[in-house]
Design a protein that fits this description.
The protein folds into 3 domains: about 1-50 and about 70-95, no CATH class; about 125-220, no CATH class; about 230-340, no CATH class. Helices cover about 45% and strands about 0% of the residues. The chain contains 12 helices and no strands. Helix 5 (about 170-185) crosses helix 7 (about 210-220). The longest helix is centred in the C-terminal third of the chain and has 29 residues, at about 310-340.
Length: about 350
Amino acid sequence: MTQLFGARTATRTEEPASSSGTQRPQPTPFTFNFGNPGFDPPGSGKVPPTDGKKQGGDPQGNGPGDDGGGDDNDDDPDPDDNAIDPEEAIKAMMQGLKNRGGSSSGGKEAESVKLKPLPSAVGFRAWRNHVRSAVVSASKDPQKSFIWILEVEREDATWNSMKYETGNHETLGTKLATAVTSIARGDLGTKISLCNEEGANRGEMVSGRQLLWLVYQSYKLSQTSGALYSLVDLTTLKIKNEKGQKDDAPHSDKQLRWFVSSWDGLIAGMKTVPTEDILEEIFLRKIRNVLSLKEDLAYYDRLAGGHADKSFTFLKEACNRLLERKREHENSHSLRRVICHTSVSDTSCSFCACH
């Protein structure tokens, strides 16, 4: 950087010496702020205003030696003290750019909001989380945008309450409308197209939150309860058999992992969660055939009624412990393979007996 800028003072003009040998005029320095108003780079020599001076609205200076502010003429530091070190100037520029783009408000808004395709009913909760993240990431004010997008999920939200409003989220809402329209398919896509057309006929622009509200409503199974899943979904959930596996065959840890993840998703989507007793009865029937839970289930069966471990909590934690041990084993196994420099298909590792 030093080679790029040299060690010269930044100047407005620089005239060559005349042929008569007269002294060339002294350069007039000026201050860099690199797109960051109010920020003076190190070495600028500018002194912060004291309590007795005005910090805003000061009159314009009368010349190169007067900085305004209502103080005396020629009160600035000597020009030699105002020289900028090139490396410090670069640091100041980078800091200025960082301050402009890295703040929680006032940053640059993304050119578009990008949404993944609409999911199945089972994947709706994960997709809704994705929408929140996509909107917040595209916004120039993440915190306010997060609150703004959460309003679509409120139970008292309506089509009219999500109408287009001017303000901080004006352009973000337009980009959200484009994103929702582009991923809508089938009956929902037709409905959204009609809403956009009707709004255009009235001279009104349909907001992004209105269209997103329509999407959320399409995933509701019960308009009275507002619940995405019910007890029926919980009772019909079961561990999936692998291809060619008989119904009475023991289930693997991999199958249990899928089941526990699906169970947690159903519970989170229920407005009213069943009691512990009901959950215990349903959950126990589902995991009876998991081979790795044989010892935990044997312990559970030996317990007398009323024992603390004779509960849904114990059964669920037993599954979680098993899956956690499985993950730790898989991670350790992968690390040992790297240490031994063995491929996945190599079964001749003798260094650590990781096979």
